[in-house]
Write a structure and sequence with these properties.
This protein has 174 residues and is mostly helical. Helix content is 71%, strand content 0%. It is elongated and about 60 Å long.
Amino acid sequence: YDQGYFWTVEMKHNLESLKAGNGYPLWSWYRGTGMDTKLPIDPFVVIAALFPAGYIELGYTVAIILRIYFAGLAFIAFGGEAGLDNFQRLAGALCYVSTSWVINVSLVQGQFIGMLILFPLLVMGVDRIYKGKSPWVFILIVALAMSLNYYLAYMAAIVIVRYILLRYFTYRKF
């Protein structure tokens, strides 16, 4: 909340500037001594910023709930690629989005949930590549992850390398 709420307010100011015909500011005095602004790439921040000024907190909360919902949908998509039946996909998605980490990060730093959405899609992209399908899902998710948060994309890369090795041996029947 300490960071994400203020990024949402900054996004609201930036969108209002764009709507008023003043362009999208590329420099921010809201962040310490000034730095680059956050581009409107994260749709959940934009949704929260579209709420009226007195309801930004409500918009921020709605954005967190939507992130959790889409994380569940991402897990369901991954489960479909992994060959899980409908019950397994639904049960897995419910377990995935109701862990204590998700609840904690929702209260502390809601924007971290973005990687919770992207990681199952990243894993799905790896599985698609191993199955000989198009690598575009993997490429697009890596690009989106890098554009949203370098640190979380770096952490996802560490985990995905382990997953790639694990799946390599699984597909090669070792």
